[in-house]
Amino acid sequence: MRTSAGAVVVGVGNVFRRDDGVGPAVLALLEERARARPLPHGTVLRECDGDPGRLLGLWENAGLAVVVDACFPPSAHPGRVHRWCPVPGATPVPTGTRRHSTHGLGLLETIRLAHSLGRKPGRLVVYAVEGAERHLGTGLTPSVARAVLPLTEHVERDLVRHAEAVGRDRRLRAGAGGTRRSASVPSGAPP
After folding, report:
1. Which of 7, 121, 126, 178 could lock 59 by a disulfide, CB 3.0 to 4.6 Å apart?
2. Alpha carbon distance 107, 109 (integer Å)
3. 51-73, pLDDT tens digit by residue?
4. Is the dihedral of CA 27, 33, 35, 40 positive or negative?
5. pLDDT tens sequence across 115-127
């Protein structure tokens, strides 16, 4: 698997299922904010309905994939955000709140599938927002709506840190091909 340096932000959800639309809401705000301050070069924003095949296709080969999705645990605290970064190479198991997806095959199962098929991004960050309502209708509940701006800012920081790390790696690789002075040459002596 060849991984690119680019990043993808995937907003998973359905805007016609109330709080399940939090992923697309974060994408919409990212797009709006990017008009004033562009996102790092190579960043792609994509919406997904949660279909595992589409999700795998969206994040495959990305250097960083940030996924934003709603979750509906039994004792939800609407608007609470969970950040989870699966360890590369380890079997994906989230810590903390068990995720309860509105999609047939949940995000955890999709991550496990990607792991077994070798179709995962270089690095994955998952933001799960606890929702209150997932019945038919539009608009986020107030608690979830209040979480959108701070979550969007967190995603922007993840993207900037990734771009900075890629830039450092490129500079290091470029510097590795340059001339090096041997440690055994005394200072002042010609190389």
Report:
1. 121
2. 5
3. 888 999 999 889 999 999 999 99
4. negative
5. 788 888 889 999 9
Give the model's confidence band at 83: pLDDT under 50 very low, under 70 low, under 90 confident, else very high.
very high
pLDDT digits (tens, 9 = 90+) for 121-160: 889 999 999 999 999 999 999 999 999 999 999 999 999 9
Please give the C-alpha separations between residue 173 and each of 116, 133, 159, 160, in angstroms, as whole numbers.
30, 49, 21, 20
Cβ–Cβ < 8 Å for 71, 128 = yes
Q: Which pLDDT score is estimated for 93? A: 55
Q: Which residues, other chains included, contact 3 with Cβ-Cβ below 8 Å and sequence gap of 6+?
A: 61, 62, 63, 121, 122
Q: What is the rounded CA–CA span in Å between residue 106 and residue 110?
A: 6
What gap in Å lies between CA 48 and CA 182, rounded to an integer? Answer: 53
Which residue has tokens 């950040």?
Answer: 83
CB 102 within 8 A of CB 70: yes
